[in-house]
Structures are given as structure tokens and as C-alpha cells.
Backbone:
């Protein structure tokens, strides 16, 4: 399982959009993906059609009360895509944990203790726009970092601080963390501004810069209010094309093995090492016999 922190302490740069649509892009390739909403604003939770105010258990229960991850994972309407929701109570976590020893390693330990963790190929952490204890937990649990960056003036502001925090985490708490890429988001290819900013990002990050570009696309902005990923909302949009291309680049970037199951609708290969949940017409999932069944898969055709 590869764990990825999608992080940038700036708000509105495309973190949540990238977490959801990279996750969905990977799920479409047949990978099993778990999304963790680590932002009290719960934008990711809403984006995958969950209601933060109605969720009985969220990431807060894990971080504060040690509720096992197993009890928090939920299927989404997308095959292979699962979520641990967030709600506003997560905002209080920084304070509650302020004096707790080992507060930065809670999430990593919860993942290590999760018996079904191996069922997932990727777990993606959608970080809040701050570098507090929530982001620290994501960085400690992650082996790769994706930094979405808006192609506008001042987008590099704060980058030095972020890189410093990542380096510190690497030195003290998580030696294996690597920056997978900086991903330019909300690009307006028609303006010189974007081109200039891209050049500036390239000067600073060089090899860290992803080849993919996420263009400005109104369908990406619309999708969250429908509770859908871009691939359900507007499969023919530039937004879908850009995130599809990024998911493909990302698989190579992090050296992921080929997916264990075939993409949505296809039959699973005979050698699938983990039990695959089989959706049934009533929405319940039947799973082949197993000691540790994976979370139920939702019917993607619904
Ligand atoms: N490529 C894009 N084109 C158009 N709108 C976008 C794009 N990416 C994100 N948005 C919109 O911009 C806003 C901020 O994006 P979001 O992913 O929520 O950022 P963050 O999680 O970093 O705060 C949201 O309303 C989102 O729908
Ligand atoms: Mg967000």
C-alpha cells in the first residue's frame, strides 16, 4: 500500500479536487483507493456525496478516541473508492492533542493496526490548509507527498516553510517520505501569467514538477456540489482528461505495481490475491469467504 499526503498550507489551490480525482482516476484503473478527509471543512467528504453533519464516526474519533480505522472506512458510489469522512469536530483536534505525547504518529499507528490495510493499493490524505498536528499526522503516515500548486503570483510563497516541515518530518519521524511531485492546478493556458508562474515553479522545483497540468475547468468546480468525481460528472471534460493523465503519470512516478483487479466493469483476474466484494442488486455486498473481508464495495453502476 502506498500512502500519499496531498498537502499545501495554502487554501484553494486544488488539494481536495486533486485528492478526489486522482483517487477516482486510480480507482478506475482497478486500484483500491482509500481517501482520508483530514480537513475540518470536510470538502472531500461532501465531494464524495457524504453528509458530514450526519456521519456518526469521523477521523476525529480515530485521532482523539483511538477508534480503529476499520470502523470508519465507508464505501462511496464509485467502485474501488472508499472514504473516511471528516466533520467540523476535527477543528478541535489540534487543541485536544496539544499536550499528548506522540500526537504526530497516531494516524500512522492506526494504519499499521488496520487489519484490512493491505486491501488498499493507495491511501490518500487530503490535508487542511495549515501545518498543524493534522498535517503532521498525514506527513508521518505518508510515503509520498503531492503538492498541488495554483499557477498564480505568490504561489511560491510559503513553499520554503512547507519543504522545511517535510524535511523535519523526514529527519525525525518518517525517513521514507519523498516528494512525488508539485502539480500545477487551475492553469489558464491562455494567460502569460500562468506561463510565467510555471517557469518560476520549474526554476524552483525542476525535477519535482509533474509533467501533467490541471487546467482551469468549470466542470471540476461543479462536480463537488453534485457529490460526484469528475469522471461521473463530466467524463468528456478537460478536467477528466487532465486527472486521468495525472493518475497515469502518478502510477509510474511512485512505482506502483499493476492493479490487482481490472477496471470498473471488467472481471477480476483469477490471481487476485485479496477477496473482491461482489455488488448485489440490493446494494449489499457479498464477499467470498475470508478471515478479514474488505469493506463492502458499492455498486458503481447505481
Ligand atoms: N482545475 C480547476 N478548475 C476550476 N476550478 C477548480 C479546479 N481545481 C479546483 N477548483 C475549484 O477551486 C476551489 C478550491 O479547490 P480545492 O480543491 O477545494 O482546494 P483546496 O483543497 O486546496 O482548498 C474549489 O471550489 C474547486 O472546486
Ligand atoms: Mg481542501
Residues:
Amino acid at each position: 500500500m502506498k500512502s500519499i499526503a496531498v498537502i499545501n498550507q495554502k487554501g484553494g489551490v486544488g488539494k481536495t479536487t486533486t485528492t478526489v480525482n486522482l483517487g477516482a482516476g486510480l480507482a478506475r484503473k482497478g486500484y483500491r483507493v482509500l481517501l482520508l478527509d483530514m480537513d475540518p471543512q470536510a470538502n472531500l467528504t461532501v465531494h464524495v456525496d457524504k453528509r458530514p453533519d450526519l456521519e456518526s464516526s469521523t477521523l476525529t474519533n480515530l485521532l482523539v478516541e483511538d477508534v480503529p480505522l476499520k470502523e470508519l472506512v465507508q464505501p462511496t458510489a464509485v467502485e474501488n473508492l472508499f472514504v473516511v469522512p471528516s466533520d467540523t469536530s476535527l477543528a478541535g483536534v489540534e487543541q485536544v492533542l496539544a499536550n499528548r505525547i506522540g500526537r504526530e504518529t497516531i494516524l500512522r499507528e492506526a494504519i499499521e493496526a488496520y487489519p484490512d490495510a493491505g486491501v488498499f493499493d493507495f491511501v490518500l490524505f487530503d490535508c487542511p490548509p495549515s501545518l498543524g498536528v493534522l498535517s503532521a499526522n498525514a506527513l508521518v503516515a505518508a510515503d509520498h507527498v503531492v503538492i498541488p500548486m495554483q499557477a498564480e503570483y505568490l504561489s511560491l510563497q510559503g513553499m520554503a516553510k512547507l519543504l522545511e516541515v517535510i524535511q523535519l518530518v523526514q529527519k525525525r519521524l518518517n525517513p521514507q517520505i519523498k516528494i512525488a511531485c508539485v502539480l500545477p492546478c487551475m492553469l489558464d493556458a491562455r494567460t502569460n501569467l500562468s506561463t510565467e508562474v510555471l517557469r518560476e515553479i520549474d526554476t524552483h522545483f525542476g525535477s519535482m514538477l509533474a509533467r501533467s497540468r490541471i487546467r482551469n475547468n468549470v466542470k471540476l468546480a461543479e462536480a463537488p456540489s453534485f457529490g460526484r468525481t469528475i469522471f461521473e460528472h463530466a467524463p468528456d471534460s478537460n478536467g477528466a482528461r487532465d486527472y486521468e493523465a495525472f493518475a497515469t503519470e502518478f502510477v509510474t512516478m511512485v512505482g506502483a505495481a499493476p492493479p490487482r483487479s481490472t477496471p470498473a466493469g471488467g472481471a477480476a483476474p483469477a490471481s487476485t490475491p485479496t477477496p473482491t466484494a461482489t455488488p448485489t442488486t440490493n446494494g449489499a455486498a457479498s464477499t467470498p469467504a475470508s478471515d478479514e473481508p474488505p469493506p463492502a464495495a458499492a455498486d458503481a453502476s447505481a
